[in-house]
Write a structure and sequence with these properties.
Radius of gyration: 52 Å
Largest sheet: 5 strands, antiparallel
Strand content: 15-25%
Length: about 625
């Protein structure tokens, strides 16, 4: 609120000026002479100074005028109350003073409103009208509380009541201003600070209230901008921290998805030790069938051997459970380095890594279990022994894939047929694991049933045609290759039909082998009548039947694998079991990169009526 200084004014002059000043929201300060005024304006700020110059010391008045000029303080004369020309001059000066006071009210840079005792607006300046996107005249008679937002109306009304009643202490917030949100004519909110004061009714004849409104919107916008900038910085920091955290999690779990449990646990321990730069890292997992726990420790970039697994006090460890299928099946444990600390963020990260590790461990355990089940199922469906057929020496081998869960649908069957003949079947069902092994068992049984039907007189092509139609009638989605061959030692020939299976290799003497090409499409695709193929055999001829796991390599053409098999057979021994072992040694990698089952059935035309029986896989220990 601005102040007006009256110098040497008479009582009637003070009352007249005060009436106008209070109406316009100004306070009045009076001094008796120019010397007192000179001293006071050096200490306080005034909007205007009015001087009754009739009895004022001229020298003091000049000093006051000089000081007022330096401070840009308007200095006006009060009327003297004399008659004639002097009285006219006094009235003119009073009018000028009134005009100056009204101008100060109207031109004030902050909003000002004068209210009657019903809180209606008697006068509003231009600054207040601009706050509300309105005009001063349009606001006259408006209840001031109706301009506030609903949440602030009660607060404003209560403050006006206290000010009107004079219940203001020195620490009352209404004295120092309080926030009020007003609603503009366009509906937007205007944030202001309201300063309330009362106008003495003795001076104006009726109680009035004065509110000065300071627009806080620029400050609010600045604060919002600062808050948004701070939020942006926080969000950026959080995003960077999250990205770093995800990067660490990804690095931790990379290349762990397809690892076996034996490969997985040492790698987890190594990555834990590296991730946290700790003295010791441990992965502890419950063993299968309630056996003792599997414990793997790592430090300084290496997996520790047995002599390094000395026990440490419990309080030295930081640990996190491994929850697999909702139950604790192990723990990740760390011993921080002597100079390091283990903060809350580290523990949180360890919890995330434990979740990732539990998923990988659970997956590896499940794959191992499925692998064991599928292999047991598959081996249980394969022949336990080979028939003894005069004139043919037989041996066979089956080995499951090296990868966990990669047991496939390979099968073979060898059975004696009427007329001292031998039937040989090899097949390969698309897919891996238990479903492929189960489908293989069904197909093996159906194929044998068709082969042994009609008095065991059906030709290979007839058997495959019936098998194909059986699959089409079932509308089964399984696709598989199969080869059925009949060796007749008495006639000295082989007849066969092939449904997309790799061709058998015929080895005659020590020369290069001959692949028995020919055949038709896969079983279960189209209604095909499979044809029969036939070739004569001589004594000591060897026939090698196999599945594609023997000859296929990733990144290598099938022709290269077939050529490698032909060389291995040509350079191998004559005796069937020894030749089978020789083929496996030459063809099957020993570095764990065998990705498919390997099946071999080997038949050699004998000079005498004898045969060699072999249980599946007996000549080459299975690695599955």
């Amino acid at each position: 609120m601005s102040e007006i200084l009256l110098v040497g004014a008479r009582p009637d002059q003070v009352r007249a000026v005060a009436a106008i000043a209070h109406e316009l929201g100004h306070t009045v300060e009076t001094v008796s002479c120019a010397a007192e005024a000179l001293e006071l304006i050096g200490k306080r700020d005034f909007s205007v100074a009015a001087v009754e110059a009739a009895d004022t010391d001229a020298e003091a008045l000049r000093a006051l005028e000089d000081e007022a000029g330096k401070r840009d303080l308007p200095l006006v004369s009060l009327p003297t109350g004399r008659n004639g020309a002097e009285a006219d001059a006094d009235r003119l000066a009073l009018m000028r003073s009134e005009a100056l006071l009204r101008g100060a009210f109207e031109a004030a840079p902050i909003g000002k409103t004068v209210l009657d005792d019903a809180r209606r607006i008697l006068r509003a300046n231009r600054a207040f009208a601009l706050l509300l996107d309105s005009k001063p005249d349009a606001l006259l008679g408006t209840d001031i509380t109706s301009l506030a937002v609903s949440d602030d109306r009660g607060k404003l009304a209560a403050a006006l009541t206290r000010v009107a009643g004079g219940d203001l202490g020195p620490d009352d917030p209404d004295r120092s201003g309080f926030d009020v949100h007003l609603r503009s004519s366009s509906g937007s909110e205007v944030w202001t600070c309201a300063y309330l004061s009362s106008i003495d009714p003795a001076e104006v004849g009726a109680p009035l209230l004065m509110i000065q409104w300071v627009d806080l919107s620029p400050r609010r916008h600045a604060e919002q901008a600062r808050a948004e900038l701070q939020l942006e910085h926080v969000a950026r920091a959080q995003a960077e921290a999250t990205a770093e955290r995800m990067h660490k999690l990804q690095m931790f779990t990379d290349a762990l998805e397809t690892a076996s449990l034996d490969e997985l646990l040492p790698e987890l321990a190594l990555r834990l030790a590296e991730q946290f730069d700790v003295q010791l890292a441990e992965v502890r997992v419950d063993g299968p069938d309630r056996a003792g726990p599997i414990v793997v420790r790592a430090a300084a970039g290496r997996v520790l051997s047995g002599e390094d697994d000395s026990e440490l006090p419990t309080e030295a460890w930081q640990e996190m459970p491994l929850l697999i299928d909702g139950a604790a099946r192990g723990r990740l444990r760390l011993v921080p380095s002597a100079e390091g600390t283990f903060a809350a963020a580290d523990r949180s990260l360890l919890g995330d890594l434990a979740d990732r590790a539990a998923l990988s461990i659970g997956r590896a355990q499940l794959h191992e279990q499925e692998h064991r089940i599928a292999e047991i199922l598959q081996r249980g469906l394969l022949p336990t022994e080979l028939p003894e057929v005069p004139g043919v020496e037989l041996t066979a081998h089956y080995d499951s894939a090296g990868d966990i869960g990669e047991v496939g649908g390979d099968w073979y069957d060898v059975f004696e047929l009427r007329g001292a003949r031998v039937g040989i079947v090899l097949g390969d069902v698309a897919g891996k694991g238990i479903p492929a092994a189960s489908a293989m068992g069904q197909l093996r049984s159906v194929t044998r049933a068709f082969a042994l039907g009609d008095g065991q007189t059906r030709a290979p092509g007839d058997v495959l045609t019936r098998l194909n139609r059986h699959q089409l009638a079932l509308a089964a989605e399984d696709m598989f290759t199969v080869l059925y061959a009949i060796i007749d030692p008495e006639r000295g020939n082989i007849s066969w039909a092939n449904a997309g299976h790799p061709p058998p290799l015929l080895q005659k003497g020590s020369g290069h082998g001959l692949y028995l090409e020919g055949g038709d499409g896969l079983i279960g695709i189209d209604d095909i009548v499979y044809g029969d193929l036939e070739r004569p055999l001589s004594t000591r001829d060897a026939l090698i039947f196999y599945t594609d796991g023997l000859v296929e390599r990733r990144g290598e053409s099938l022709d290269a694998g077939l050529e490698r098999l032909a060389r291995a057979v040509a350079g191998g021994p004559e005796e069937p079991q020894a030749l089978c072992r020789h083929i496996l040694t030459a063809m099957v990698p020993t570095d764990g990169t065998q990705y498919d089952d390997v099946t071999i059935v080997l038949a050699r035309m004998a000079t005498a009526a004898r045969s060699l029986g072999s249980s599946p896989g007996g000549e080459h220990p299975g690695r599955g």
